Amino acid sequence: MAAPTTPRATPAADAAPRLALSGITKRYPAVVANDRVDLDVLPGEIHAVLGENGAGKSTLMKIIYGVVTPDAGTMRWEGSTVQVANPAQARRLGIGMVFQHFSLFDTLTVGENIRLAVDDTDAKSLPARIRDVSQRYGLPLDPRRHVHTMSVGERQRVEIVRCLLQKPRLLIMDEPTSVLTPQAVLSLFDTLRTLAAEGCSILYISHKLDEIRALCHRATVLRAGKVTGQCDPRRETAASLARMMIGGELPHPQHREATAGAPALVVDALDVRAADPFGTTLREISFAVHAGEIVGIAGVSGNGQKELLAALSGERTQARRNAIMLCGKPAGRLGAAARRRRGLAFVPEERLGRGAVPEMSLAENALLTTRKGGLVRRGFIRGDAVRACAAKIIDAFGVRTPNAEAAARSLSGGNLQKFIVGREISQQPKVLIAAQPTWGVDVGASAQIRQALIDLRDQGVAVLVVSEELDELMEISDRLAVIAQGRLSEPKPVHATSAEEIGLLMAGAHRTQGAGVPAAVG
Amino acid sequence: MRLFLEARPQPSQIAAWTAPLLATAATLVVGFIVFKALGRNPLAAFHAFFVQPVASLYGIAELLLKATPLMIIATGLAIGYRANVWNIGAEGQLTMGAIAGGGLALWLGESEWPSAVLLPLMFVAGALAGMAWAAIPAWLRTRFNANEILTSLMLVYVATLYLSWLVHGPWRDPEGYNFPQSKLFADAALLPNLLAETRLNVEFLVALAIVAIAWVFVRRHIVGFEMRVAGLAPAAANYAGIDARRNVWLGMLAGGACAGIAGVGEAAGPIGQLLPSMSPGYGFAAIIVAFVGRLHPLGVALASLLMSLLYLGGESAQMNLALPSAVTGLFQGTLLFLLLAADVLVNYRVRVVHRTAAA
């Protein structure tokens, strides 16, 4: 990470906290999301809330912003006790929040989207104010642009500017860098530092240790709903932060040198038209994945990953048979079930609703894609074979669940993902495609899944990983390519490239279309 | 103090089976209020509605007789509904089945064909006609993505008018005093009785067989499993490579075949000829039966008994209490409405929350 460009001023430690939470508790039927959490934020401070997936960070922020009411505890805002009943009240108090998942209307312009959220009556001066605020904080925006033409990084700017127009005194940012290229991350940090210097407090939610150490003044660490520590991240190492976050060392996968074999998946000049008006059209995508190697495809969300995965998995078939070759045979026209029979396995991006049927048991979900192993005989399902198959997956991949009859939606994100990955691997595929394999998954399960992919590669399977997490791809891939605006860059060996170069490729094709705003980075 | 609807981590099995009971109880409460408002003694009305119809062996036979077509049709519809294929035109498919089976009976009845050959042929003809009528919405959906709710419903009126034309015109009984009805079927084309002194016929056994076959298909066959997946999570079905078009065809044809069989059962059973109206709305009531029975073959069997009781009760209430005929429809609709409301409890539970005290 490059050194910050402006010195970081530490806010006066003896100033009264702008926000003080004490004893905040929130219980859900299956889990205690927040357990007597104390937190305080000083004026002008960038305060990190650090924790892995499922630690309770998002719930805590939703309580502050009024989306959720706590079961116990108090919140003091600028000295007086408040109960935030809803986001509108939070905004009136001076609290703004930028969510991880945006709520913007694709068919409207930036100006129209912002006008919907900003309740003041002065609509005429709004475009000028948007331009003014966005320029001042380094997030240039054209109010006349339609949201569907914008990249995810640009849409995040709209969300941030929407908050800034209401002059917040506390800005909550929930995992803001998951949708940005490395260069755009640095640019965002500059913006946040400017805001903090002007006296705005910032709550920065993340699980990325390097970013927190580069940006934040103080950090509160959450684990399983409880506060496990408070520190100055600048004085901590990644290892000490990890220990507070997960109670141990961050695991690193074991890597052997790759010896690639014959090409198992070959994509040749794949052209796919976008399925819906706001999708991305794929153009001339060509690459090959060899047996015994992991190829990673990096890219910011919304650049064609969804369309590429649907084309590869068989959910969308192609007109040209040779556009996709599986183990040397043409597969372009085959559907998903036929491609599975040829040795393809696929772990999709969405667990519930696509990778697994939420209401069905794990046993039935094992049957969803597994047809080998005598599960079906002459059209009839063999119940014990199905249950045995599910039990084997649960056992081999350490899925935490009472038994195979548990409904898929009762599992945590990490456990369900382990089940789905395990189910696909258990079919002994020749090619495995994984989309966002560790998204929303806790650290322990993430490490297990990454190790499983590497082990698979060592056994001679061709593995393709499409992910928005660049760190993950750089860690496990042998070769890396970048998808941007529907085109794929030439895959390069990981040791011959760098995060900066990948970041430039990710942003490279984002030229704005005719709206007069300079080319956006990210 | 506030009431919250809180999502359950897992759908409640208990609620899934008690929701229909809750809905039935709530329907009775509504009935109580309605009868009072109509100026009738509610207890007497309930007695006439629910107890009197089944107070004799004949009454029980009538109960099973009316439950039979409901059971058959609802079982077929449920297979489609589980896959999100919404066949609303069962009434029309029933009519076409009656026409096909009845037409065969009128054509071959006088000849020397024995019952054991003629009746199965009539059922096959009815099933094929029902399937053909259901194939139209299926084709329109798979080819043009036309909503099958609208197309199947509109075809009901086409079928009804076609039948009306037949019994007013080409098939009218020349000795029928100009009434719009066909000739009575010959004895060989009538369903044999199951219970002496009653109208219960062998179609009841056919219904039980259909329920059993459907149960095996839905629970044990891979295609039944795939149709369930398609209904619960279409994206997962696509991911698994399940053929969505095959599901639409199977869903519609299952309902069509069952409705056609039920149509033959009505024509060759209690009616014994073709009339302008072959059913008191069985095709639509079967939709309610399918949902009250939770789309499960065994639940459907029980629900058809309940719905049959509502039909009989309505007739009894008309005769004994001079209530309007709409009272049957009122109860059926209320039951479905309250059932959908009670269904919420399967996936959500009610939580009473006391406001957190300010510090």
Helix/strand layout:
The complex is a heterodimer of chains A (522) and B (359).
Chain A: E1 19-27, E2 32-41, E3 46-50, H1 57-64, E4 72-77, E5 80-82, H2 87-93, E6 95-98, H3 110-117, H4 126-136, H5 152-164, E7 170-174, H6 182-197, E8 201-206, H7 209-215, E9 218-223, E10 226-231, H8 238-246, E11 263-272, E12 282-290, E13 294-298, H9 305-313, E14 324-326, E15 329-330, H10 336-341, E16 344-347, H11 362-369, E17 376-377, E18 380-381, H12 383-396, H13 413-426, E19 431-435, H14 443-458, E20 462-466, H15 470-476, E21 479-484, E22 487-488, E23 492-493, H16 499-508
Parallel strand pairs in A: 3-8, 3-9, 6-7, 7-8, 13-20, 13-21, 16-19, 19-20
Antiparallel strand pairs in A: 1-2, 1-4, 4-5, 9-10, 11-12, 11-14, 14-15, 17-18, 21-22, 21-23
Helix pairs in contact in A: 3-5, 11-12, 12-13, 13-14
Chain B: E1 2-7, H1 13-37, H2 42-51, H3 57-82, H4 90-108, H5 115-144, H6 148-168, H7 203-220, H8 222-232, H9 234-239, H10 244-271, H11 282-292, H12 297-321, H13 326-347, E2 348-353
